[in-house]
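B., you asked whether I could sanity-check this one before it goes into the benchmark set. Here's the sequence:
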Amino acid sequence: MRSAFLTVVTVIVLTLPVLAGEIAESERRSGYDFMSSDTRAMQDDDTANPAMLSVLDGEALWTTKAGTANKACGDCHGPVDVSMKGVAARYPAFNATSGAPVDLGQRVNLCRKQHQEAAPFAAESRELLALTALIAKQSRGMPITAGDDPRLKPFIARGRELFFQRQGQLNLACTNCHDDNWSKHLAGSAITQGQPTGYPIYRLEWQGMGSLQRRLRGCMTGVRAQAYDFDAPDMIALELYLMSRAQGMPVEAPAVRP
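And here's what the prediction gave me:
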């Protein structure tokens, strides 16, 4: 299967023009639009959406006291459906302490360290995905606003540079698939625009939850490039650029994807 995948990628690269142009706002489409009707129905129905199990885990964690401070998230923030409304739509956000953007998972871990005096959750851990899924759900249907802060401009520029930078043995950039060839098919699956409207997601291929960082690392591995480390500055910059180019699109989290 890997050999077949690489063959199809090579055919696309050799036979299709590389336009390296960003998608016009009027043409932006969520990954939801590229899914089958059955997968859409799964996402649309909270009783059938497997990501909602992670949200339930997040609800339990929200009220669980942790760390030396013996505090729960709710002790500081109150009801999650009130205090977290719209929060996920503006992440990654600028962190004044570090002078750099942090994504939602990093913000959760900063709260654990600074306010609960607890150890940070591991990247892609059940707990971190559960809390970010819970928080992201509170922004469902709200427009993405990430990137509005003027302090983020240099980081957005870096993320855009990375998006257009060819890498790996296949010498491909993110833009070659997601800007230039979206709606075409690769190994039987539709190429989407890479709009990050639904993270964290439940991906059927994974049979589990995953963050945008996990998805990006998978793409990098697919083009035979060295994947960025979780939470690396370039990873966050790329996340930020993707979210900023999806400004105005509604949050779908927690979404389902093939």
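One thing to flag: The CA atoms of residues 63 and 74 lie 6 Å apart. Otherwise nothing jumped out at me.
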